[in-house]
Amino acid sequence: MCRNITVLRGLQPAASVEEIEAAARQYVRKISGVQRPTDATNAALEVAVAEIATVTARLLGELPERRRPPTTVPPLRRPEVRARLAARAGADGPGHVG
To answer: How many distinct structural domains can be found in the chain?
Structure first.
């Protein structure tokens, strides 16, 4: 199991579309071995991320409530991760797609 994918079921508030997509993207990167998409790999990876995110959202919606929330906080809910992403977006300039 990829250590970077956190439990999304049972979060309060519920996992956001952004969090679900981030988990799907991490999963796709892990199983494909592609960390930096190229023109040759980008389309296939994006399709996979979208499909996995859709299935994940459906799964989370169909599972019963958890008795206890997850023990870890998803990365996108951590201030230090948000700050790092904001700094990276600023450094890449407008219109950059990471």
So the answer is: 1
pTM assigned to the model: 0.77
Residue 10 in any domain: the answer is no
Separation in Å, CA 46 to CA 41, 49, 51, 82, 93: 9, 5, 9, 22, 22
Nearest-angstrom CA–CA distance, 93 and 79? 21
- For residue 95, what are the contacts with CB-CB under 8 A and spacing of at least 6? none
Query: Could you give the C-alpha distances from 53 to 20, 23, 40, 59, in angstroms and in order?
Result: 6, 8, 22, 10
- Tell me if 85 is assigned to some domain: yes
Give pLDDT tens digits for 3-54.
Answer: 667 889 998 899 999 999 999 999 999 999 998 999 999 999 999 999 999 9
